[in-house]
Amino acid sequence: MTQTSGTSSTPFRVIIVGAGIAGLSLAHALQLANIDHVILEKYDKVKSIKGAALTIYPNAERIFDQFGILSNMLSSTAPVAAEYQRWPDGSILGSRSTLDRFRIMFKVPPLLFDRQTCVAHLFGGLPDQSVIKLNKRVEKIEHTENGVRALLTDGTMEEGDIVIGADGVHSIVRSQMWYYASASEPETVPESDKSALFSEYDALFGVSKLEGSHEDYGMAAAETNIVFGQGVTKLFFQQQGQQLWAIIFKDRYCQPPKKFKATDQDMEDVAQRFSDIALNEKVNFRQLWESRTRAGLLTLEEGVLSQWHAGRIVLVGDSAHKMTADLGAGANIAIEDAVVLCNILHRELEKDRNRHPSKAQITSILAEYQKERFSRAKLFTELSGKVTRAHSYDTLIGKLLATRIGPMMYETQLLKLATEWAKAPKLDYVPVRTIDENAPGWLLARGEEKNLSRSWLMCACFGAVVTGLVFARYRLSRL
Q1: How far is it, in rounded angstroms, from Cα 379 to Cα 303?
Q2: Which end of the chain has fewer CB atoms < 10 Å from its terminal CB, N or C?
Q3: Which pLDDT band, with edges at 50, 70 and 90, does 9 fall under?
Q4: How far apart are the first and last CA of the chain?
């Protein structure tokens, strides 16, 4: 199809597998770069079938602003007015204003909505929706002399220069990348990558519609609740007149993760197990379960692959790194992946969209992408896991971090996270439309790192001392 390291009459072409948040973000970025592409989606419509609530932080909001869809997103949601941390009985432990603080710092309120709403905005705002082909399930990926082809279960195929796996944690693209590497580049992918992911938590998630108004249940029009507990975290959000929730509970440790396809009875059993847990002073889980409009039960995989590419195949988002839900960072980091990869492709093809880099050049391009993304993905994957374990009281130290030490370190934690969002990538080749990049939050990326790291170290040392004192007191009280 293509010529090696040269120019032809056909444009460089990207094959994207998966029309979720990562895949649609790739499509937006590629269309803005005028790079030819196609999206292969295995379902019969563009939808998000996994997860319920989704938080979009300033890092991804700036990218969505470049896509031209942020204004519509903001107008369809209410800014979060209240954020509560609760004891296992549903009573208030504390009230923080993280999302509102981000609104003030970055001059844009973080978005809280369900995943399907996010997907709908990404799809609805895509200039050329004809690039998405539905009911297209990948069966095999083959490398050709000068390109790559995706063979589909319906007997058709798509040819291009690279394949991007945006098809989630159970990625067929990843499996095909491993197969190719074992046959053609045996030193590329370490065997350890095949067990790099693990699982220790499951999540029952869903969307509900309680009768009456949010005031009847002691809630603001848009609010978040994190309910701590022994071996379980409860996430309970109100937005757009509906309730978004997740029950994240500890299961047995599995590496690689267990393969699990939940039945309706499986979900019912879990729902009954947690039916009496309180989510605030007026709502228990039974009420949410009985008023659910949709629900699902998933294994929460965790981990980061050490190799994200082989040959002309590359992974983005959950296919390369998977994190737990408590921090709400997974989709944000996947969107960043898409932007970084497209920035590099745009740079390589800017002068000639018909250029077809050789396989060696493609390897160099994809290696640059992974190098830029790996540390950040690992950081947020590990941080997400630590937050989940603290919220679920996985250990005494975790409980202390969630309920005692964390609140004392809140200001430093907030500043550290804000700085990470400020340092996030954006598209190099299109302007920001409405975001004010002179807002205080964005300026954190321009010189606060040294001061921040110093204060973070001091706070960490203070936290360690407090932990020791509290632990000693706990032990003495048991004597």
Answers
A1: 11
A2: C
A3: confident
A4: 76
CA 103 to CA 25: how far, in whole Å? Answer: 23
CA–centroid distance for 23 within its chain: 12
Helices 115-124 & 21-32 angle (0-180, nearest 10): 20
Residue 298's φ and ψ, nearest 5 degrees, are -130, 155
Q: What angle do CA 226, 229, 479 make, to 5 degrees?
A: 135
Express each pLDDT in 14-55 by its tens digit: 999 999 999 999 999 999 999 999 999 999 999 876 778 999
pTM across the whole model:
0.91
What is the separation of C-alpha 9 from the centre of its chain, rounded to a whole number of angstroms? 38
Q: Which residues of 56-65 are buried (b: 16+ CB within 10 A; e: fewer)?
A: bbbbbbbbbb
* Nearest-angstrom CA–CA distance, 312 and 329: 28
Q: Where are the domains of the chain?
A: 13-78+109-196+304-395, 198-302
The amino acid at residue 93 is: L
Q: H helices within 221-294, ranges in order?
A: 264-273, 285-290
Q: Please name the fold of domain 13-78+109-196+304-395.
A: FAD/NAD(P)-binding domain (3.50.50)
Token look-up 């197969």 returns 179
- Show Cβ contacts of residue 233 under 8 Å, excluding neighbours closer than 6 positions: 226, 227, 246, 247, 248, 249, 326, 388, 391, 392
Distance CA 20, CA 292 (A): 23
Q: Which residues contact 103 (CB under 8 A, 6 or more apart)?
A: 79, 109, 110
- Tell me the pLDDT tens digit for each residue of 327-382: 999 999 999 999 999 999 999 999 999 999 999 999 999 999 999 999 999 999 99
DSSP 8-state assignment for residue 350: T
The contacts of residue 151 (CB under 8 Å, 6+ apart) are 138, 139, 140, 141, 142, 157
